Amino acid sequence: MLEKSVQYVLFRAKSWWLLFAFLICGAAFAEGPQATPSIFAPSSTPADEIYHLSLFVLTITGAIFVTVGGLLAFVVFRFRQRGEDDTTEPAQIYGSTQVELAWTVIPVLIVVVLFLTTARMIFAIQDAPKPKAALDVTVVGHQFWWEFNYPNLGIHAVNELHVPLSNQQSPTPTFLKLLSADVIHSFWVPQLAGKTDLLPNNVNELWVDPLHPGMYVGQCAQFCGVQHAKMLLRVYVDTPDQFAAWVKNQQQPAVADDSVAVGRHVFETQACMNCHTIKGTAATGRFGPDLTHLMSRDTLASGAMANTKENLREWIRHPDTFKEGALMPAMQLNDQQLDQITAYLATLR
Asked: Which residues form the Cytochrome oxidase subunit II copper A binding domain (predicted)?
């Protein structure tokens, strides 16, 4: 029994030290976008605040673990049963005022310190002033995709959020107003900001000021239905020139290509136009994503697959192939209609 107890203590200690080492390694990530999102590679002021708070909490909790684990290991080893020991109960000692005060006052102080530190960080983020150069974006969570509206620019984007690069000399933060069209969602891009819920009939807000250009990965962090795990999102931090070019393209109406006029006619005569919008056409649906600049995006179905012509055709034919439980129905189109609609949508850049 003693041997098993010692092995258990050592196993637990080894597991926690491995976790601690993993987290410390995460803290050494290079700045900028990462293939795997991590709070230990912050690229925005809110994420940086969370990062330093996490290190502070990790230090305190790590010290508690080392202290408790060390005392436990010492007691197990020091007071183990020896061969010459009898089986009588050792002397019982009660009523140590010093010990009672120590294990009451110290935990209370630790909790108070953690509470005050966390509260300071939360209010520092929430009460940050909004500069005149800030970009406003309204985020709407749907089952199971993201809608991004830029009210001052007249842009409606989907699943891939574009924001300008910010710097200390000329801060250009992005302020996000978070809404939900159906159930509770949660907006989370670990390297840019903390999790914030999107609630029906309620408005929440967060802001980011990305300091490094590139693409940052996030997703819905609140279970919202069958395809919650594939409700991914991408945030593209563009340089000023890149962002200006993206805005100019997104403000244009859909490309009108006569070579795919048949495909456009099929799109407009099917139920597709009841759910989707394509600026400059009769399609003004609001239940599904805006397709005006569909092929300017890197992914389809909220990051479920790469945005290629082949994947697009298969997605239209049978959405459950890539995203089982998606609310987009299979349209039961024949092969000719599928080819025609795919050819038309492939021109929307």
From this structure: 132-249
Phi, psi of 316, deg, nearest 5: -65, -40
State the DSSP H helix or E strand holding residue 305, giving kind and residue range, or none if neither. strand 305-306
Is residue 254 classed exposed, middle or buried when 0-12, 13-18 and 19+ CB atoms within 10 A define those classes?
buried
Cα 73 from Cα 5, distance rounded (Å): 9
User: Helices 45-78 & 97-126, crossing angle to 10 degrees?
Assistant: 160
Give the chain's domains with CATH numbers: 2-81+94-126 (1.10.287.90), 258-345 (2.60.40.420)
For 199, the 3-state DSSP assignment is: coil
288 in Cβ contact with 300 (< 8 Å): no
CA dihedral 247, 248, 251, 253 (to 10 degrees): -140
Q: In this structure, which amino acid lies at residue 222?
A: Q
Q: Which of 318, 312, 320, 308 is nearest to 339 (CA)?
A: 312
d(CA 205, CA 198): 9
Separation between Cα atoms, residue 179 and residue 203, nearest integer Å: 6
Instruction: Residue 314: name the closest of 300, 296, 295, 298 by CA.
Output: 300
123-181 pLDDT tens trace? 999 889 999 899 999 999 999 999 999 999 999 999 999 999 998 888 899 999 999 99
Q: What is the per-residue pLDDT across 193-232, written as a single tens digit (0 to 9) for each?
A: 999 999 999 999 999 999 999 999 999 999 999 889 899 9
Q: What is the pTM of this model?
A: 0.82
* Separation of alpha carbons 125 and 51, rounded Å: 13
What mean pLDDT, rounded, does the chain reach?
86
Diameter of the chain measured on Cα atoms: 97
Which strands, in side-by-side order, build the sheet including 145-150?
A: 155-158, 145-150, 135-142, 174-180, 204-208
Are 213 and 239 in contact by the 8 Å Cβ rule? The answer is: yes
Check residue 320 and give its pLDDT. Answer: 85
Percent of the chain with pLDDT over 70: 90
